Amino acid sequence: MHNENENQNKKHRQLETFRAEDKNESLTTNQGLKVSEDEHSLKAGERGPTLMEDFHFREKMTHFDHERIPERVVHARGYAAHGEFELYESMSAYTKADFLQTPGKKTPLFTRFSTVAGSKGSAETVRDVRGFAVKFYTDEGNYDLVGNNMPVFFIQDAIKFPDLVHAVKPEPHNEMPQAASAHDTFWDFVANNQESAHMVMWHMSDRAIPRSFRMMEGFGVHTYRFVNAEGKSHFVKFHWKPKLGVNSLVWDEAQKISGKDPDFHRRDLWEAIENGDFAEWQLGVQLIEESQEFDFDFDILDPTKIWPEEDVPVKIIGKMTLNRNVDNVFAETEQVAFHPGHVVPGIDFSNDPLLQGRLFSYTDTQLIRLGGPNFHELPINRPVCPFHNNQRDGYGRQTINTGQVAYHKNSLADNTPSVSTEEEGGYVHYQEKVDGRKVAARSDSFKDHFSQAKLFWNSMSIVEKKHIIDAFSFEVGKVKNKDIRQQVVDMFGHVDNGLASAIAHAVGVHAPNASEESTVTKSSPALSQEHKAKLPDTRKVGVLIGNQFDDKEVETIVEECLNAGMNVDLISEKYGTVTGINGLEAEVDETFLTMHAVLYDAIVAAGGEAENPQKFKMDTIDFLNEAYKHFKPIGILSKGKEFADDSDVKETAGVILANNDSFAQEFVNAVAQHRHWDR
Questions:
Q1: Distance between CA atoms of 171 and 183, rounded to whole angstroms?
Q2: Alpha-carbon span 580 to 552, nearest angstrom
Q3: Residue positions annotated with a catalytic role
């Protein structure tokens, strides 16, 4: 137990070495000199010029002028937390990676979520891919699993990544739109790079507007290798399965949240961890033996393809828990440097051409963003195991290397630091046999761009298909060039004629030729969010309440929600307390001015009286209408019925009336369903 706790706290202790607590300390310069004045610069007379002699002013201003570092080109808008990974069962049959050997072993980690297209200050609920990057601080060195919340990508070869990003970023002639793909250059890229078809289907689906970081899946995207102690290799794909299920916003709601709270996703993660509602995902792997590499109707190295879970089951091997918020967003979240090339013995690469390019790009970008080659010495990036080599100097060097030797081989230091054999833990690349001519080309097995896009479409529920059509209609409808709109419709006619015809109707172009539609009939239930488990845990419920509320009903539903693990806010016209008909006093958490229905998963109309009854009624009705329009659960208590009767709310799916003893449990069950599409 002692050793387990040591391992669990190792990374935390390491960061403590660099943590500075300034409370109750004297103000000093960066050199440790105590400062007597921090309000006024040194001047030649009270109304005279500031003197260059004022070293404190110059140090303070110079530091301020250099506080910003280049933001990430992509994934700039991110948020992160600390946690741990616990292994369920030994994976020794597949990999010799130490952190995957002993059941119950816990490995500290750091996970960053992000949008892709937007700048650092953009909103978080935009339609976009979400980054899902995990840094494991293992005893053998850092291992980074750098992925997304979608299992495929837009392109097959890394050489096209600059083109993709240039296309989706704000257009250079006017720097618009921010954090959005609904513009001409992105859709021009899509129509002329049709390998993107499968990824665009995901991008237009509800997966692109998750309810929470805690309610989205994560994927390694690429095909990697597991290599065991005997040198046997398996191809592997990684999956993160969220405990709370996979849930999304609706598009109208997502747009409104961007205005009401552009920090919606980071606030959700921060508050959940602060409340002790730790975020959890199970880690799963799909495994294919080397001998099966060519047994499928797709190329397993193609990053625009999934391995359908019905064909290659996901094996659950462990659990990630995020249980500690960062202490400083810049020092940790901004300065963390992920890299798919940060691996440990037992994990290796495939010949996926997108992955191969990332292995170069990530080092290159950290050099410019973090100022030089010593980004590994920043506290958040330091491994928990010691590191020794002959690298020296450079910007930001923190290690003070002693001795005269900084080269290999040597005799002055007995040829140390020395290399390790594979048996001693030295990393040895998998000895894959490679034979071929040098060509700038791709395999013919990568050329089917539409079969899996059709598989995805076939797997969606009726509601999900409608959302995809609406998303295409919005995005392509924002394209000003009619020829590009036609090209997009023609392209997705190769996926499904019904889909493409619906888009064509919405954006004012011709329907495609039906004969070009993909003939794939297969579906994969694992791709639909509607088939994912749903829980009420940590859901946010807003109770609209005034004075003279029904004490018993409010107590009952609040208690039932809290017992189910939900969070409840009492919302009224002003802060303070409200008093029920039997004298129960309740503290108001939020007001109608500070919150909005789109920021809650469910609404309860408790009713009551207010100082401004007309405004209280209008605000209550506005909350109810918004929640009803977005298919959210609504509870209507006896005192709230008069407000509901004047709203758009009808007695239908997900609308629970307090007309029986089980109404509170019925409401909890309704919240667990997330949305009620039957309306």
A1: 8
A2: 9
A3: 75, 148
